[in-house]
Amino acid sequence: MKNVLNIVPYPFLPYYSGGQKLIALFNQYLGQHCELHVAGTVENEAALAKNYTFHSLLGKKNKVRFINPSSFFKLKKLVVEKSIDTVIVEHPYLGWMGWLLKLTCKTKLIIHSHNVEHERFRTIGKWWWPVLKLYETWVLKKADFVFCISKEDRQWMIEKMKIPAAKCLLVPYGIVQQQPPTDKKESKKIVCNLHGFNPDHQLFFFNGLLNYKPNTDAVTTIIENINPVLLSKNIPYNILIAGKRLPESFQELKAFNQQHLFYAGFVDDIDLYTKAADVLLNPINSGGGVKTKMIEALGLNTTVVATDTGATGVDKLICGDKLKIVSDNDWTAFADEVLEATSTDTNIPTTFYKTYYWGNIIQQIKNL
User: Fold this and answer.
1) How many angstroms separate the CA atoms of 17 and 7, rounded?
2) What is the value of pTM for the model shown?
3) Spatial separation of the C-alpha atoms in residues 56 and 43, rounded to whole Å
4) Residue 258 confidence (pLDDT)
5) Residue 334 to residues 106, 114, 203, 208, 315, Cα–Cα distance (Å)
6) Chain-centre distance for alpha carbon 132
7) More reliable by pLDDT, 178 or 287
8) Calpha distance 293→270 (Å, rounded)
9) Contacts of 281 by beta carbon, 8 Å cutoff, 6+ apart
10) Reduced to 3 states, what is the DSSP secondary structure of residue 71?
């Protein structure tokens, strides 16, 4: 890959979610090895692009952008002007544009898959997931390569979507750290001071976009199922929940302060809060795909307690004792694992960084 175009269907500069961060850092590290151009919507702040050139060619963030033929002609002009040899499309939705560029400009086509999208929408109850399955399968079959975020997704595509194995390359969600941080204790003191917590008390943390159903369900689970068990153990702790777009139905969360539950709203420095936590809570039961906040937390040497579903896509063999997994819906066992995790003080294995550091990930694909 010498001259590359990456097509991104939604705003990601600045990034607020794990998926947006994946795109920003993937491009930042890829841009160190090729001439990289990224095309996206006008809501992006182009000045934040690092190691690549951003082009606002997809118009505004609305449904029309997925079927707008004028965008194709703008992209084709860019491909010709910049001698693009490889087109990468984030998610399958604009895969039809990538396929047309492949046909008309003789480029390679790569689909960068963040999930098995139709399966993700099936698990959250969208009726139209079978239509997406047909389209997604068609797009992946037309690609020269598919970047899969996890071994599970790769196997799904091979076995259930009949995508040739040679096309499916494992390109996991990456992190910028290459070793455990040395300032976890200092981070906890800072966060506890910000919220008036005793730093000697255990700090449990959950974060995410809170109007996304799997995260909304997880907050409900923490309030109704996990916290009552922790309360019964009579230990000193606080649970801090952070994220944008808290639904109106959860405004009562602010009234739970007497039960060790606190809502922090959106926090600018999510790494600070993740490092500060003794345990990251991941009681996710739907949504599919890799929970990127888990990989971020493990990279910051924070212990994670997750459900089977929540732990999907993470290479458990390289996480050591930092990842605790509990069966879905067994919330008593989940709370017990949270308590047990507070008594262990181990570091994430160095193998974790070899696998998930962005620099190493890009090294494996730069010569495609």
Assistant:
1) 18
2) 0.90
3) 8
4) 66
5) 52, 27, 16, 19, 20
6) 21
7) 178
8) 10
9) 204, 205, 206, 218, 222, 226, 239, 305, 338
10) helix
Q: In the chain, what are the domains?
A: 3-176+356-363 (3.40.50.2000), 184-352 (3.40.50.2000)
CB atoms under 10 Å from CB of 155, counted, come to 13
The whole-angstrom separation of Cα 243 and Cα 209 is 5
Long-range pairs for 250-258: beta carbons < 8 A, 24 or more residues apart:
250/210, 250/216, 250/219, 253/219, 253/223, 256/223, 256/227
**H helix or E strand, kind and range, residue 204:** strand 202-207
First and final CA of the chain: distance in angstroms?
6
> Quick one: tokens of 208?
């995410």
Report pLDDT digits (tens) over 332-364. Answer: 999 999 999 988 788 999 999 999 999 999 999
**For residue 251, what pLDDT band results from cuts at 50, 70 and 90?**
low
Nearest residue to 148 (alpha-carbon basis) of 260, 344, 313, 342: 313
Helix spans in the chain (H):
18-30, 69-81, 95-105, 117-123, 129-142, 151-160, 184-195, 213-221, 227-232, 270-276, 292-299, 331-341, 350-356, 358-363
d(CA 273, CA 280): 10
Name the region of 59 (left: φ>0; alpha: ψ -120 to 50; beta: rest): left
30's tokens: 């890829």
